[in-house]
Amino acid sequence: MYDPSQMARFAREAARLADASKFAEQARRAAEAAKHLDASKFAEQARRAAEAAKHLDVSKFAERARRAAEAAKHLDASKFAEQARRAAEAASRVDREQVVAEASRFTEQAQAAIRAAKNLAELERLRIEYLGRSSQLTEVKKLVRELPVEARPEVGGVANRASRDLEDAIKVRAEELAFIEREARLRAEAVDVTLPGVPYPKGSLHPSMRVVDEVVDFFVGLGYRVAEGPEVETDYYNFTALNIPPGHPARTMQDTFFLDEGLVLRTHTSPVQIRTMLSQEPPVYVVCPGRTYRRDSDPTHTPMFNQIEGLAVDRGITLSHLKGTLAAMARHVFGEDVKVRLRPSYFQFTEPSVELDVSCFVCGGSDPKCKVCKGAGWLEMLGAGMVDPAVLEEVGYDPEEYTGFAFGMGPDRMAMAKYGVADLRLFFEGDLRFLRQF
Ligand code: DAH
């Protein structure tokens, strides 16, 4: 460890050397002066003083002066000079080697302290202590100016070397510490990619939405576009444009939620047909999923339910296109083995109108106690038909040039059949125990 007394000794030695040089200089000057001392002149002065004293008749004083003159005669200036020379030599014999040794010991200890610095802050403290403006090393450098000329290079060199060595040591340690601190930081910030993830509650698609996705996927695969419309509809789009004029008894078939004047919650997705046809020229191939509303609530009816509307209008569209398209769709959703059949039906906006049944995909018609088809062998799936010419005219299409088919299905009902759910209301109660099963 760094021992401050070491540096103090170093400083002291340097100071001593500085003092000694002053002393040596004084001695040298004294010796010089002594060399020039002329004892005979002094003797002559003394003689003259004695003469004067004689005339003053102070014989005693004269006698003393005479003796002084005698003594001065014997004064050997060279001896005095020799003494002064020796004193000067002794002074310059201050042990420079010791200074050098002290300095290198100090440097070693300081280097050791620097190497042991535990962090950059401590290192900076050491730098200020060893190399700062009020460090002992700086003091020593200042003393150098007061040293005898011949001692300056040596002591100055020692001090400069010590500075350089310490600066180097600090630089090396600073790099080491920066590396160590960076490593520590990286280690502290490290992310353990092998840790298992925080469990994130997994959602699942609603059973109705699974069917919607399957159906929409199927039609998109055929080149149909997805179209959507508002759930709050005008009476016109929901009824009148679909060939159900005000007062027509067909309106009562749909248990409607009436809103403000002229507005309803749409009872089916069929108004999207109208909006689509009004917004573009034929050909039209769209599939329109969405929420619909009716005042109904029992195990197979809920006030809100989903529908998927489909519409194809083009030149030469026939009922066989309708049947082929829907048969393919049924196979896509329920399995390759299902068959479809059409039954005559009635809708205001189609002529002829049909209902499409799908053969029971569970028992295939073989189980009289089948829970899904209740022994019927067939499942009612959707309403469809050829678009009524009155509807085409209403949207400005020429029924002589274009024909079309349309259909509307209930994905909730389809999901009930597909997943064997007896009560439609479960779909919309938001009970996670139920929904997690899909
Ligand atoms: N909109 C009818 C309903 O909700 C379903 C329907 C039947 C839609 C025949 C159609 C269709 O597009 O052609 O009961």
Please tell me about this protein's structure.
The protein is built from 15 helices and 9 strands. The protein is an alpha+beta fold. It has 2 domains: 148 residues; 229 residues, 2-Layer Sandwich (BirA Bifunctional Protein, domain 2), CATH 3.30.930.10. The strands form 2 sheets. A 7-stranded mixed sheet has the order 1-4-5-9-8-7-6, sandwiched between helices. A two-stranded antiparallel sheet has the order 2-3. It is rod-shaped. The relative contact order is 0.08. The model has no long low-confidence stretch (mean pLDDT 86). Bound molecules: 3,4-dihydroxyphenylalanine (DAH).
What share of the residues lie within helices? 40-55%
Ligands bound here?
3,4-dihydroxyphenylalanine
CATH-defined fold name of the largest domain: BirA Bifunctional Protein, domain 2
Strand order of the largest sheet: 1-4-5-9-8-7-6
Corresponding CATH architecture of the largest domain = 2-Layer Sandwich
Under CATH, the homologous superfamily of the largest domain reads Bira Bifunctional Protein, Domain 2
Order of helices and strands: HHHHHHHHHEEHEHEEHEEEHEHH
Low-pLDDT sequence parts: none
The Rg value, from CA coordinates, equals: 59 Å
In whole angstroms, how far apart are the ends? 72 Å
